[in-house]
Amino acid sequence: MQAASIFHLPNRDNEQLKSLNIKSFPNSTPQEETNAINYEVENIDEEISRLNLLKAHYRGRVNELRSKLSVLPIDILLRIFEHALSIEKDQLPGPDGILPLVLGCVCYSWRQLIWSTPSLWTTPSFSARLYSTPELIRLFFDNSGSLPVSVGWWDIVNYKPYEELGFIVRERPEKLRAFRCYFTNEGREIWNLAELKIQTIQMLSSGLLPNLREAKIYHDGEFHDEVLRLPSLRELHWKGFLKLPSYIPIDNLTTLFLEEIQPDYCLDVLLKAPKLETFHVTITSILLRAGISSPHDEGHLISTAFQNRREEVILPRLKYLKWVYDIHPLNRMWTYYLMKFVRLPSLEYLHFASRGSSTSLYVGEAEMELVRHQFLVSMPRLKHYRWFWGHIFNPQGLGYWDDSVQYPLGSTTRTFLSFLPSSVQKLHIDFLEKTAQDCLGFLFQLLKVGNSEGEIVLPALRELSIMGDSSRSVGERGLDLGVFYTELVEMLRSRRNGPPEKWKTIVRLEYFCIEVRDWGLLDKRWSKKGMNQCRDVAESIVGEGLRFEERGRVPQFDESEDEIYLAE
Question: Any idea where the F-box domain is (predicted)?
Answer without folding.
Answer: 70-126
